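Q: How would the structure tokens look for this protein?
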Amino acid sequence: MKAKHIFSFFFSFILINAIAQKKQDSLQTKWKYNPNFSVGIDVLNAGLAVFSDRKLIQGFVSTNVIGKWYAIADVGFEKNIYQKNGYDASINGSFLKIGALYMLANDKEDVRNGFLAGGKLAGSFYNQEYLAVPIRGFGNNEMSQSFPASKQSSYWIEASVGGRVHLFESPFFIEVTMQPKYLVFTTTQEGIQPMIVPGFGKSSSKFNMGFSWNVAYSF
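A: Here is the predicted structure in token form.
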């Protein structure tokens, strides 16, 4: 009797393990990440930096995670000045964006071409200096006050909508995107909202729009 129980337990144990292994193999078959990366640089804003006060360099790394979903990370550096309405401010610092993109539509002849949409969380850490901030003096006379350099940070969310086209049969492709942005939180100096945020742009309004024209390499 004991032997019968032992054999029943033994075969039940084998059966349960076989079923569990089959389910695990099935899950692995359904989703298996194959290492793949694309690295790109924004040539539009890098080129415009030659003709403007805004010196912006940014690039990205992306990878196809599963199906039409891509994980993406942007990193960059911006140096800029703001001289308007009595303000004279300068900033310089880096920023980071992390998010996901989805391929909305593919080219039937080349699935690597198509339209993308997604969202990112972003943060910027920068140095800020106010050489002049307008204030009301005695008798409502317009005056200005300067503030020393300080370290600040800002955070925002942004959408990303654009298209991607590969260059013939090469591993290079061109990607053009439009990025509506919303500033969620920012630190302030003496209660003064920052005039410019690296990676976000002019922040006199919580909403902003960005554009990029990237050349990238897939491997």
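The two ends are 63 Å apart (CA to CA).

The chain is about 15% helix and 60% strand.

Upvote if useful.
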